[in-house]
Amino acid sequence: MDSLQRLHLILSATKFTRTLPAELQKGLLPLLSSPVEQLQLLSSAVLRETLPLSGEELNYTQEDVLQLNSHTAALLLSQAGSRADLSSLCAQLLRSLESRQSDGPTHSLMQTLPILNTIITHSPECLTEDHLTLLSKKIVDWLRYASITQGGGASSGGFFTGPRSRQPVPTAELDGTVSGDFFTVLCVGQGFTDDQWMNVYSFSMLRHWLLTYHSVPSGSTIADADDRSEVDGSVVSMVSATSSSSRLLPPKERLREKAFQYCLRLIEQSDRSECVCETRGKKTLCLVEAVCILDCVCVEDTSLVYRTFPCVKALFGRLSSDLTFARVLLPIAQFYLNHGEMATVDCESVWKLVFGRFPAELFNSPFLAHELLRFLRLNLESLQLRVPEYTRSFPNLLKFLAWDSPAVVDDFVDLLPSLVTAETAVELLHTMLDLPCLSATLLLQLRSTCSPISEPGGRGLLSLDAFRSASLRGLFLYLLRTEAGSGDTIDRLSTLHELLAEAADWPRVVQCAQTVPVLLHIFFSAVVTIADEKLSAHLILVMLERSSLLLNIPTYIKEIHRVFSCHLLRLCKLRPSLVVDQSHELLEFAGTTANVYSKEEIYTHVVWALGEYLSVSSDSRCSVRLITSCFEALEAVLFEITSSAPPPGAACPVPRVITTLMSALAKLASRSHDLIPRVSLFLSKLRTVTRGGSVAWCTDEEDLVAIVMRGEELWSLLKTPGVAQSVLTPPPHVTTPQWHRDTNLSMPLQLRTLTSLTHTQ
């Protein structure tokens, strides 16, 4: 073993051609069938690192199929050089399935089905029509006609239990009663016969076999279709388990019928109470597989839908009250989604469970989160068209994201655009901004059922006390709502943020806050495709309002402001008339000096939008009075921040804010020439003040020089109002393309020349 480990390391690390002497390769091949599994594993790993074996050696291993194991199979599959090699391997494996127990060990037969399953996964076309027919017949035999007596020499009991007194003991159901029908994977016994093990193996690969069946070229497709039309009428009840009509079916239809009967029997067996608690997990897994197989066969043959639905509906009614069977209920929901419309069945109770109780009560189950979100992604189009509960359930679905953001963020990247509609967009935006609060609330919900949690110093969690308080309970219940439509947001958001202030550094809350900006970009990218002017205006108001109503996580607030500034500008570019429509709110925001210091990112973009789109060319409703009021509001802010030091605890205003304010004032003045003297006076004073050295509102000398230079450029332009208007507010045919930014044209040179001519030294 030590030598094999060293050899494997050498082959894995070498940069040279990975070949072994033929004698050494021949010596390694017998180790594949060694009784010591470590030797099987190491020899297979070594041979897989080398170049494919020669034809003679490969044939040797294929012919030794009676000693087949998983490691030998891995080697054969890795070194199959072509589809012909795989077809040859399949032929030998299928021939081995026809051998009886006396011909060789049954262990090799049990290895054969998993290997064939692997081949189907990677190369289904290597199976011929004869292969398909043979394997379908064998699977039918194993599924339906396995023995019903226990294997392994089980005794019937009694005082005299010698070898001669051993009698065949029938298999039992989950509740201990004797099996009254054919053997399935849920039958119980002290031991199992070889054909019973093959029954289990066949059931485990049955769904995959059915799903890939039609991907294999079939020479009898038309004939099969004709046969189906002749025999469908004869299959009218479940009594056809052993009827002659079932035996007359073609191989594909016969396998489908036997799979259908097998799954119905599994569902019937699962209704029995198990004697051993350990079998509950086994029963759950078998039900999942059974419902998935029923869904598969009903997709292939819609006539089975009416025979299947009563059984599936009864199973749902039996399990829906017990969320420990949530793993089974999701395949049932898939069945309802695929076939409910055809069978005209009411699916409302299914969707209430899937979109209601699942996220609300099992949000902290990683497996359910993965399965449910995968179900949503795979059926996104159908859910949007046929399940109205889907888009209304986003407050509930987002609980998965709030609880474990890193694990499910990729799923929500795909799902989020489908949740954005004209009716849900505003509430969805509020909900996404409150996701860190929801994350903290979910933690408090779980902790409230436990003993009071205290910090190391002995101080209890104030947020937990608030969660338990009856007067504040409504704030948390709104976050925990299961369906949209109860209002876009709540009035006391600031109170909620104060109550959850101590949660700002909880790991789950921090992770959730890091996810929100990414999803907001996706949200706005989706909303611009459906938003009309009214919705766009509403979203702008929400962004202005919520910029000051966020959970106090500094990095989170900064990132949200960056996202808001980007998409507020995008909305204004798409619909410039929004600036006139929302001029009152935008001016109120831009006229608040405190926003310069606390929201410089979004403030800068609001000021830029006002200066850029508050013009007659963007909206004919724009009046001189509106331009003047905007000018006065921005002028007051600019004068205030450049004539005094920043407030205590605040940093100096960002230079970009000041230059954007100056540019906006110059643009507005170029559209109303009466305002030009006021701008020129301010810019000249700015130049005079800065000559004296540093100023209180800008401590960096380079930033101050850049601000003064920008002021001089604007001052020079405003000396010739006609030129200023054409440069600061160019007509559309000039801005597209933007000639003044193209260094290959003369416009930049003309601007620099004009500046030098009008500038007094």
Q: What's the quick description here?
A:
This is AP-5 complex subunit zeta-1. With 761 residues, this protein is mainly alpha-helical. It contains 40 helices and no strands.
Description:
Residues 285-399 form the AP-5 complex subunit zeta-1 ARM repeats domain. Residues 411-757 form the AP-5 complex subunit zeta-1 C-terminal TPR domain. One of its GO terms (cellular component) is AP-5 adaptor complex. It comes from Scophthalmus maximus. There is one protein chain. The protein is mainly α and 761 residues long. Among the domains are: 387-449 and 463-574, no CATH class; 576-760. The protein is built from 40 helices and no strands. α20 crosses α23 and α22 packs antiparallel against α27. The protein is elongated and about 115 Å long. The model is unreliable at 155-161, 215-244 and 453-459 (pLDDT under 50).
Which short descriptors sum up this protein?
single chain; 40 helices; 761 residues; mainly alpha; 0% strand
Q: Which structural class do you get from the secondary structure elements?
A: mainly alpha
Give the CA-based shape: elongated
For the record, give the distance between the C-alpha atoms at the N and C termini, rounded to a whole number: 89 Å
Query: How large a portion of the residues is in β-strands, by DSSP E?
Result: under 5%
Helix % is 55-70%
Q: Show unreliable segments.
A: 155-161, 215-244, 453-459
InterPro entries: AP5Z1, AP5Z1_ARM, TPR_AP5Z1_C, TPR_AP5Z1_N
Domain AP-5 complex subunit zeta-1 C-terminal TPR: 411-757
Protein name: AP-5 complex subunit zeta-1
Domain AP-5 complex subunit zeta-1 ARM repeats: 285-399
